[in-house]
Amino acid sequence: MKVIEHIAKSNSKTQFTFEILPPLKGQNIQSIYDSIDPLMEFNPPFIDVTYHREEYVYKELENGLLKKHIIRKRPGTVGICAALQHKYGVDAIPHILCGGFTKEDTENFLIDLDFLGIDNVVALRGDAIKSETYFTPHKEGHAFASDLVGQIQDLNNGLYLDEEILNTSKTNFCIGVSGYPEKHMEAPSLESDLYFLKKKIDAGADYIVTQMFFDNQKFFEFQDKCKEAGINVPIIPGLKPLATKKQLNALPHRFHVDLPEALIKSVVKCKDNAAVRQVGIEWCTQQSIELKEAGVPFLHYYSMGKSDNIKAVAEAVF
User: Does the pTM of the predicted model rise above 0.85?
Assistant: First the structure.
């Protein structure tokens, strides 16, 4: 079932959803099941599965020269989605990126999803990899998420890259895209970021999932600015409970989000990470309650491979 259909069936009731990482190469899918099982009692209508693109490392040869080597540390997004739908009977939503994909790769990826009965995707540009200062698209791929959305929408209309194909089947993907209440790190301003978000919606995106945030007021302001910009699709807030002191610096650096001063002071006072975890649960719980009262369609939690603190939040909210 499509995300927008889940919203229509909910009768304005906020639902619980979450996002998982594929396991590191060498691990089996049981590690995924172990993190998901504790959360299934909250009846998520869908589970997002991230996609992790290739990285480049340089290995020294016997002659002293360096050879470029491509590795993928977290493969398996499509297989994981198929397994989740089979095991749990929920919709699994794969992320698909511009980065590292040619247009042909994208089309083949989408065809595989369609064959598997997966009818939701989240279309993302993707970040720069470690060897890049700025994001660099594949020379035969898409530079912007709006172009990726356009290709997905083309398949929904039966338009394939090979225009000579006859009697093509139309896909039926519901398309999610990302939104940034505190703006994307590369955007010069929030208004500029909203302009490009509107392009993704105009290209055919059906809903928005936000980057994590820790101040609900920023989300509410983002909602208002979206309406002013003519963006009228559902907006799903993304949340993550803090778990360690290290995240006070790591999350703002990695995800370019601000932490409220009250949260910072509470974490600084903690003697250990067990205390930080409790502060994070309590803060995220209060965020969730306020957002639920505001009538958001889903509360979407970033699990990062761990589920115990998200379960604690969900027990208090749902």
Answer: yes
